[in-house]
């Protein structure tokens, strides 16, 4: 399982390098192929220092199986997402600042329809109100997990999930890219230019053929 630990550490460092989390914010997990365990980032460690040996292995009830550190305090949300979504094998929690700022101001309105990637990968985007980190956030996420691939939490951050870590990270990047675009457009104009609904449907059809 060294490979999955290394992947978790590398994914988290990447989110830090991209400015999608601060040194002590965010967390990332990958579910094992046999679906009995998850590998998750530890609580408190600076993200840019993370290595494979820092990653914590827990069972699907959250019991630590291996690891020298404590698992992330957002572990309850990761476990809940895996239990409700058999299709998901990686969960990312990041702090994309433009997305959260727009959500706080009531300006992140799904469907965003601002870029082709966003039409495809963020078509199941949900927003929820702030809840206390840990169990409180897991409870608040619960209702929208089955209908979402990305969930923005006001005054906090976002969860994204996918069939693998690459997809989960891409969703966070696309969310922040689209949000930055809307933010910049709003600072110049009053209403962001959106791809018309019928064109957004066409984009989905084009990529479905591949
Ligand atoms: Zn957070």
Q: Could you name the CATH class? A: Alpha Beta
Radius of gyration: 17 Å
How many DSSP-defined strands? 8
Beta-strand level of the residues, as a percent range?
Answer: 15-25%
- Total of domains: 1
Strand order of the largest sheet: 4-3-2-1-5-8-7-6
Distance between the termini: 33 Å
What's the CATH superfamily, by name?
Answer: Class II aldolase/adducin N-terminal domain
CATH architecture: 3-Layer(aba) Sandwich
User: Which word captures the global form?
Assistant: globular
**Quaternary structure of the protein:** single chain
The CATH topology? L-fuculose-1-phosphate Aldolase
Helix-strand topology string: HEEEEHEHHEHEEHH
Task: Give the topology, please.
Elements (H helix, E strand, L loop, with lengths): L1 H16 L9 E5 L5 E4 L15 E4 L4 E3 L8 H10 L5 E5 L2 H8 L11 H6 L3 E4 L6 H7 L8 E4 L3 E6 L2 H24 L8 H12 L2
Helix pairs in contact: 2-5, 3-6
The site of zinc ion (ZN) has 6 residues, from loops.
């Amino acid at each position: 399982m060294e490979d999955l630990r290394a992947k978790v550490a590398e994914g988290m460092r990447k989110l830090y390098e991209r400015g999608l989390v601060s040194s002590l914010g965010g967390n990332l997990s990958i579910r094992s192929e046999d679906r009995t365990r998850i590998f998750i980032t530890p609580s408190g460690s600076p993200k840019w220092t993370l290595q494979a040996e820092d990653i914590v292995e827990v069972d699907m009830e959250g019991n630590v199986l291996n690891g020298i550190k404590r698992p992330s305090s957002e572990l309850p949300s990761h476990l809940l997402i895996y239990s409700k979504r058999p299709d998901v094998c990686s969960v990312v929690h990041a702090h994309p600042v433009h997305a959260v700022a727009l959500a706080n101001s009531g300006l992140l309105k799904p469907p965003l329809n601002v870029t082709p990637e966003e039409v495809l990968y963020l078509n199941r985007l949900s927003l929820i109100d702030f809840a206390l980190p840990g169990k409180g956030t897991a409870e608040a996420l619960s209702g929208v997990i089955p209908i979402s691939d990305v969930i923005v939490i006001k005054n906090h951050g976002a969860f994204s999930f996918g069939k693998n870590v690459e997809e989960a990270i891409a969703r966070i990047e696309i969310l922040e890219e689209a949000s930055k675009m809307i933010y910049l457009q709003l600072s110049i104009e009053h209403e962001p230019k959106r791809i018309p609904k019928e064109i957004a449907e066409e984009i989905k059809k084009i990529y479905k053929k591949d």
